[in-house]
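Reagents: none. Just compute today. Extracellular solute-binding protein.
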Amino acid sequence: MSRPWSPAVPRRTFALLAAAGLVLGTTACGGGGDPGSSAGGKVTITVTGQPPTSQPFERGVFDADVKEFEAAHPNIKIEPHEGFMDPKTFGAKLAGGQLEDVYYVYFTDPAQIIARHQAADITEAARKVPHVNDLKPELLDNFRGPDGKLYGLPTMNYTMGLLYSRPLFRKAGLDPDKPPRTWDEVRAAAKKISALGNGIVGYADYSKNNQGGWHLTGWLASMGGSVARKDGGKWVADFDNEKGRAALNLLHDLRWTDDSMGSKQLLEAQDVQRMMGAGQLGMYMAAPDNVPVLVKQFNGKYEDYGIAGMPDGKGTLLGGEGYMINPKASPEKIKAGLEWIQWKYLNPDRFEKHIKQYVDGKQPVGLPAEPTPDVWQGAVRDQQLALKAKYANVPAQNYQSYVDSTSRIKGSVEPPNAQQVYAILDSVMQAVLTDRNANIDQQLSTASAKVTSVLAQVK
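Predicted 3D structure written out:
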């Protein structure tokens, strides 16, 4: 499915994603279909995920990792390809023998890929991969098929939270070290922040380009609900209910009763980020990757932002990315591909070195999801958090509420055919945020029928 702006992949900038889709669609590879080994006994594998030259730090780290990996694994040669995943070209590349041996996926894609037999079964091979059992089980489950077999590995994870302006909290008489824990507290804080005047908005939300539907899914998750559920083996819509009404009624009250969301609506990510970067916004729903975007693209300061767990704490929307392996790959290529994925992305032995790369490159260390991924549990997660605290160069304490919440709030993955679902739900968000008298029951009923129809296409 197409992600022109890709909410599901938080650590990629929108520009990068657009470029990635173009690069991935035109890359010539020759990998995947051949059986595999080059002269001298080396196994050559093609891999996606190389950042573009427009991101020199990230590109430099990736290329250096390739050289280091090849030096440590003289029997494996890595042939990196720029870009990530363009769902529009994926099937054609696979059929034409041009899909890379190791390819990147969003969390919304594995179920469909597995159903279409477009990924290799790595169940047995993965048993020998170090630290697989230290990964969060719910993330691994996203790469399991109905047969219980494993078809990929997660390499990055995010959950939604509440991003807020610490300076505006202080100006409004709120404690920035005690962010809202419920939606009622968000509403109360938004009223106080909006009361500061001068065009300041207490709370903002997205409502177009599929982003409104994505955020409405986050609202439902926080209240213990969901957009979709399985009923007798089939997916159906699951929001035309009390939880759906509660979410939309609260949005309505924030917008119309309290006037805490401002008059300008039909916003998307860049609009809201621009408001926050300019010091004109108190809060919005976001993943931690938004913080460096605010700093690097919208003139913000790391010390000005905090992140809390999702209000109400009954759930949160979970997203991320991972890697799968071409179903045509030979056993040798599967083994080599798993060695690359583990060494590059899932390697606690390289935590400290990777963090130091960020420190030396004057990149932020101490944010919840960077520079090492939040995919771990138990002792490995403790090791990771200790190292990030040791080398932190941003105020990590500002994000502690979010970090604490991720260990206790259950995350739910995005629905199948997510972008089509989000497009339908955009209209619901737009109606509530632009029409004081919008019929919420009618909006939910109409959208539910459309979403169920879209979900019926899921195999």
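Residues 187 and 254 are 7 Å apart (CA to CA).
Action item: order primers for follow-up constructs.
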